[in-house]
Design brief:
By secondary structure, the chain is an alpha+beta fold. It has helices at about 10-20, 35-40, 75-80, 80-85, 90-95, 100-105, 110-115, 120-130, 140-145, 215-220, 225-230, 245-265, and strands spanning about 5-10, 25-30, 45-50, 60-65, 65-70, 130-135, 140, 145-150, 150, 160-165, 170-175, 185-195, 195-200, 210. A 5-stranded antiparallel beta sheet has the order 4-5-10-6-7. Strands 11-12-13-14 form a 4-stranded antiparallel beta sheet, sandwiched between helices. A 3-stranded parallel beta sheet has the order 1-3-2, with helices on one face. α2 links the parallel β2 (about 25-30) and β3 (about 45-50). The relative contact order is 0.12.
């Protein structure tokens, strides 16, 4: 790891000023991706600006028909919090599947969404639950926030403050994990929200997280597992690597979507 300077930001304005003054600085949340790349000398930020102590990024609450979670909330908190379990149990269940206890006690929701790893779990929940992502500069709908693998609509100096999820009528998350890394090889979040059925997939798309409109349309005619398992996924849109071919992942999408719909129903 190259030498760097650690700085604990005291406010959003303070963090923004620090990164504006040093173009090679990076924001630090849970650090589960950034610190690993630094250890491999694949990243060399001159300063790490710690956001986890900012009060603006804390808190879990229900506001109307939405569950609002501060960006600095750790995965373990999401998994165990009574408010989350009461409002969206499937989101708590999703958080409990992330990594191992060390990762869950360090990693944060905001950090995961900002990094947008193609195998990350929260992007699927955000897409399925019509999330609104509030930042230091404005708001994004989840469908506009994720722009590609490891890419989002965030500016370099923009900070995720909180995430607002619509509380669904029903929802479930099915995850097929890589047994070694515990990352998602393919996972599906199924939900019925005010706008209708939602099916969001992570771990498999060659452009990152995505929705499956054909499955959503099928579910409007009847919420059954058969409605989605009969929908064919184009392997050309799937990732292919040593862990699973594009054809295998396309098959998994249909299988896991059926399980998620059955579990939610």
């Amino acid at each position: 790891m190259y030498n760097t300077t650690y700085y604990a930001a005291t406010s959003l304005a303070d963090a923004a000023a620090k990164i504006a003054a040093d173009g090679d600085a990076k924001f630090l949340s849970g650090g589960q991706t950034l610190l690993a790349t630094m250890k491999q000398r694949l990243a060399a930020p001159t300063m790490l600006i710690d956001l986890t102590k900012l009060p603006e990024l804390k808190g879990i609450s229900v506001e109307g028909d939405r569950l609002v979670i501060g960006a600095a909330t750790k995965h373990a908190q999401v998994a165990s919090d009574a408010t989350v379990k009461g409002a969206i149990p499937s989101l708590a269940g999703l958080a409990a599947t992330i990594g191992d206890p060390a990762v869950r006690n360090m990693g944060t929701m905001g950090g995961s969404l900002a990094n947008n790893d193609p195998a990350a779990d929260y992007p699927a929940a955000a897409m399925a639950l019509d999330a609104i992502i509030t930042t230091s500069k404005g708001e994004y709908k989840a469908t506009d926030f994720f722009t590609g693998i490891f890419e989002t609509a965030l500016d370099e100096d923009e900070i995720i403050v909180k995430i607002s999820y619509e509380i669904p009528k029903k929802a479930a998350y099915e995850k097929f994990r890589n047994p070694a890394s515990r990352y998602s090889l393919c996972s599906v979040f199924a939900a019925e929200v005010s706008g209708g059925p939602r099916i969001a997939v992570t771990g498999s798309g060659n452009e990152g997280v995505f929705r499956v409109p054909a499955m959503e349309e099928a579910l409007t005619r009847g919420w059954t597992a058969d409605a989605v398992t009969s929908v064919k996924i184009d392997p050309e849109t799937m990732l292919s690597d040593m862990h699973g071919s594009a054809e295998y992942r396309a098959h998994l999408v249909a299988v896991l979507a059926g399980r998620a719909v059955a579990k939610a129903g």
